[in-house]
Amino acid sequence: MGHRSKNKQPPPEPLKENASPKKLGKRKADTLEEKVARPTKKAKDKSKKTKNPSKPTKKNTPDADAWEDVEDDLDMKAQARSLFDDSDGEDGASVGDLDEFDVDNDEPLRGPVQTFDFDSDEEVPELEPMGKTKKSKQIERPLKIIPTGSDLESDSDSSDSDDPITMANMEARSRALDAQAAAEAELDVEEMQAAAFDEDAEEDFDMDDEDEEVEAGDEFHLPTAEEREEEKKNGGPDVHVVQRRMRHCVRVLGRFSKRAEKGRSRSEYVEQLVSDIASYYGYNDFLAEKLFQLFPVAEAVEFFESNEVPRPVTIRTNTLRTRRRDLAQALINRGVNLEPIGKWTNVGLQVFESSVPIGATPEYLAGHYMLQAASSFLPVIALAPQPNERILDMASAPGGKTTHIAALLQNTGVVFANDANKARTKSLSANVHRLGCKNVVVCSYDGREFPKVMGGFDRVLLDAPCSGTGVISKDSSVKVNKSERDFTLLAHLQKQLILCAIDSVTPDSKTGGYLVYSTCSVTVDENEAVVDYALRKRPNVKLVDTGLEFGREGYTKYRGKVFNPSVKLTRRFYPHVHNMDGFYVAKFKVEKRGKIAQETLDKMDVEIGEEGVNSETNGRTIAFDDEEDKPYLEEAARRRMKAKGLRPPPRKTVAA
Ligand SMILES: C[S@@+](CC[C@H](N)C(=O)[O-])C[C@H]1O[C@@H](n2cnc3c(N)ncnc32)[C@H](O)[C@@H]1O
User: Fold this and answer.
1) Ligand 1 mean position to 562 CA, how many Å?
2) Measured between alpha carbons, how far is 527 from 494 in angstroms, rounded to an integer?
């Protein structure tokens, strides 16, 4: 595939699991080439239609989860009361055949049902989403349903029409768009096939190419340390050089024994590749390496590349106020082109294009939906709250998941929505009110104070503060502002929070007794390592299936670390695999302390004993490891002093 296909994205939905990572083929090579021309990457002329959302403004808060943060900017006073109070009724306004929005059907719906003037700028884009005049990379995402050749023929006439869309021509226009997408898809396939036979294509990364012949003048030479030093002195390598070198390194690392230069080691190639990835995509060396290590070589490049592309714009229907089909129709009437996200959610909609700002429609202001990344649905689906339960959302601002929980509870029971950051609880409260959640209590404690503040919860969600390495496409500052120390401190905070979250769950719950731990980060330190720590420190918990239909299994071994085998039950989500933000979800069942399976206890004793940690387990609380915690506690004390304007004493210990 060539330039045309750059940035096309399918909707967020499960892709085939365990598929071997895609080979870097011509398409990827083209992608790399295109980077040279950034930011004017797109070759396609899309001037006819105003398509697709630009991302809503996002604050640079590394802890922030996805773009529920746009809610922060809303002036509550401007939030109109519901304009659609009647819409809850089973027989809402008759709006044509929208049965597909009743849960399972994923047919696309697009095109307004009224006449729209695509060239006017009538709406004031308060929150700047979906700006008519802005194009985003999502424009080129292929539609989900690719029509047949006959559709192509019959509608080809109308595909380019500039006539206004009306009830009469909407269907034909819609089919024409599908046909266009199909034609593009066919072209892509042709290009891909052509590339497969193009022996001269130096960009072809085919790792299985037995008969490769390197043309004269195209031999690749891995720079020596001196040459790299020289390159640095001269202001760094040219972008073309970096691209070419990255391709070559990936190629060599794909079949090292055959392709490597004599006398050069694998680690030299890896070092060069990571260094080039860092400079090409703009990461600090530390983070580039950390993320690179998560994947096989070629897949790692896919991951970095996917972080350059925005994820699909998605919204969650607030079922406390409306139904998905009614919401879809209301938005279609406003000129929004959308379709259900996928079969795994019956409340999500993916927005492809809009002629109105999607963060400021009357439906938005009336709380009929939440702008929410698809990945953010996952932990709440895993939590599976049941009516009348008592739930704690331990780190909840700005409330994307809290309001989802409240909706699943159908406004019964109670949700304690906590966040340590008082300022962020304002947007949390605003969202709670806008979405009509009547069972939510907002509070602001450090999560580590639970369960002393209150306990006895049927379910707890800990959507932990994290490094945000899963949401780099939304917040690129993560590329440079995270150091090794940040990861150490974050992982420590996460470990403390998870123990407090576990202790807040009542094992006596008749309906629940679960904790869901999630992050929008892909690093093992913040995910599997935290979960494994919790299993070791709290033998009364076990991991259970998340209930999510897709996602890769959690690592049970990683770079010399061995985790509890049950960590396999946790789920990882990646932008390059699932077309959603990088995310991690683990679900624990909290059991009574006396009821722990003996085999689990035996295992715990061995594991904990091996580490030389306190091995008193049976029924007794295992405290934090004071020695391990010392530097972190010291660091926290230093920070508190600094915050109070006091000068902290010099450091005594250093975190590992
Ligand atoms: C990933 S965000 C939560 C997003 C939220 N769950 C949602 O869906 O909208 C992490 C949150 O943790 C909060 N936080 C950080 N440290 C905390 C702590 N010690 N206790 C409780 N909350 C904390 C941050 O203020 C931030 O709002």
Assistant:
1) 28
2) 9
Residue closest by Cα to atom 15 of ligand 1: 465
Neighbouring C-beta atoms of residue 295, cutoff 10 Å = 18
> Cα(421) to centroid of ligand 1, in Å?
7
Furthest-apart CA atoms within the chain: distance in Å:
78
pLDDT digits (tens, 9 = 90+) for 125-166: 233 333 332 333 332 332 331 222 222 233 333 333 344 444
From residue 5, how far is each of 10, 142, 152, 184, 555 by CA, in Å? Answer: 12, 9, 19, 8, 32
Q: Given the CA of residue 461, which atom of ligand 1 is nearest to it?
A: 6
Q: Which helix (H) or strand (E) holds 460?
A: strand 459-463
pLDDT at residue 574 above 80? yes
Angle between helices 266-281 and 239-254 (to 10 degrees): 140
Contact status, residue 409 vs residue 459, Cβ threshold 8 Å = no
**249 is annotated as an active-site residue:** no
CA-nearest residue, atom 23 of ligand 1:
420
Element housing 329 (H / E): helix 324-333
Give the residue among 304, 199, 179 at the shortest CA–CA distance from 246.
304
pLDDT at 653: 59
Please report which confidence band the pLDDT of residue 521 belongs to, taking 50, 70 and 90 as the band edges. Answer: very high
Q: Count Cβ atoms below 10 Å from residue 514 Cβ, excluding itself.
A: 24
Q: Which atom of ligand 1 is nearest to the CA of 428?
A: 9
Tokens at 544, concatenated? 């259970």
Annotated binding site: 395-401, 419, 446, 463
Binding site as annotated, residues for S-adenosyl-L-methionine? 395-401, 419, 446, 463
Separation of alpha carbons 437 and 439, rounded Å: 6
Q: Residue 426 carries which side chain, given as an amino acid letter?
A: K
Count helices and strands in the chain by DSSP H and E runs: 20, 15
- Per-residue burial over 208-242, b if 16 or more Cβ lie within 10 Å, else e, is eeeeeeeeeeeeeebeeeeeeeeeeeeeebebeeb
> Using an 8 Å Cβ cutoff, are 590 and 502 in contact?
yes
User: For residues 356 and 354, what is the distance between their CA atoms, to the nearest angstrom?
Assistant: 5
Q: Are 172 and 166 in contact (CB under 8 A)?
A: no
Residue 395 CA, ligand 1 centroid: distance in Å: 4
pLDDT in tens, 381-391: 999 999 999 99
Which residues form the pocket of ligand 1, taking CB atoms under 6 Å from any ligand atom? 63, 65, 68, 376, 394-401, 419-421, 424, 446-448, 463, 465
CA neighbours closer than 13 Å in the CB half-sphere of residue 352: 24
Residue closest to 247 by CA, chosen among 294, 199, 202: 202
User: What is d(CA 407, CA 381) in angstroms, rounded to the nearest whole number?
Assistant: 12
C-beta separation of 37 from 600 below 8 A: no
Which residue puts its alpha carbon closest to atom 25 of ligand 1? 421
